[in-house]
Amino acid sequence: MQDKVIMYTDGACRGNPGVGGWGAVLNYQQKRKMLNGYAADTTNNRIELTAVIEGLRALSRGCEVELNTDSKYVLQGINEWIVNWKRNGWKTAAKQPVKNYDLWQQLDEEVARHKIKWKWVKGHSGNAGNDLADQLANDAIDAELKT
What we know:
The chain is 41% helix and 33% strand. It has helices at residues 44-57, 72-87, 101-112, 128-146; strands at residues 3-15, 18-28, 31-42, 63-69, 115-120. It has a five-stranded mixed beta sheet. A hairpin with a 2-residue loop joins β2 and β3.
């Protein structure tokens, strides 16, 4: 049986494009791991994808993951669009290259390692896990901008 992890991820971007930060909260049994990072030049969508990728990368083995995100872009991309993108050689229905292709490929590789139940949570709505991931993302930006 796989370990069960409840994960919350979020990205924050000041400007779009602009400076960004990501946060991930991983809850396993009675333990909590908090991760965050910074990107000097990113977009809202890229930093949201990065948060999920880095959260999943932090798992050392395949797990059952309840993954909570407030990004409909991430949810729709992974649950609806990616199948056709891959079938079409990473092109959209309009035959254009998929935006953020590099990150979608990385996410696809991470997702293959786990059994994931994707959940959407409304951002900035009092969900403790999402609020903490958002705080971690903003903390990463603040820490970098102070240097």
